[in-house]
Model the fold of this input.
Amino acid sequence: MIDLHIHILPGFDDGAGDLEEALTMARRACDDGISAVVATPHVITGLYSPSKEKILAAVGRFNDILHDNGIPLDILPGSEYRLEPDLPERATRGELLTLNDTGRYLLVELPAAFFPSYTKRVVYELLLRGIVPVIAHPERNAAFIKDPSLLHDLVARGALVQVTAGSVTGLFGSSAAGAAKVFLEHGCAHFIASDAHSSRGRVPVLSPAVREVEKILGEERARDVIHLNQQLAVKGENVPVSGLVDIKPARRGLLSRLLSK
Done:
């Protein structure tokens, strides 16, 4: 398996605090059957601002350390960008680090509590530049939980979506679990990733979520969001979108009605 979203580079953000913790996370990932991860440190203006070059250099050093310690995990470069109005301009200047630095897929997160007014514009302008936004953990965003059609609209426009493994298994509560299920059932989720921050709590483990996704989608469809799409993304190849089911805009209690069906 490939984990597309993990905060494993030591000292970059609120993930692994030191090298020992990063190595423990790497061993934990290997024990779960994960063969490669995309290191995705936060990039948030005014809070975390590592450059593309700094992340690439750190990934190279960490791969060497893993090899020296006999840990069979490949670290690929990436970042998790806060969705900010100037992302398209930063992309034009070559400042953004896409998943595995292929120039194709960009992991972005929205603020947890709301849907910024500039979201659709930024998504559109990134797509115009040939960069596909991958929306990180929307099932933990209050606006998407309240109105899943907002996410459906972004997918219909060309964005892709990453759901967190812990949300599927209930780690983040019933609202996140319910939203994740709705997004999977309606074709609005294309990747499962750990979003791990440590070796305990939010851990680099995917297999429990794999079993839950197979229950929701069946083994054949689950294979895409667990295995195939990740392989395509790290190669910069086209990730097919299929099975998109319409979600009407919410008035009140849409998520509850969807879950009750």
Summary: The two ends are 32 Å apart (CA to CA). The beta strands are 2-6, 36-39, 42-43, 74-77, 80-82, 105-109, 132-136, 160-164, 191-193. The chain has one domain: 2-260. Residues 2-260 form a domain with the TIM Barrel fold (CATH 3.20.20.140).
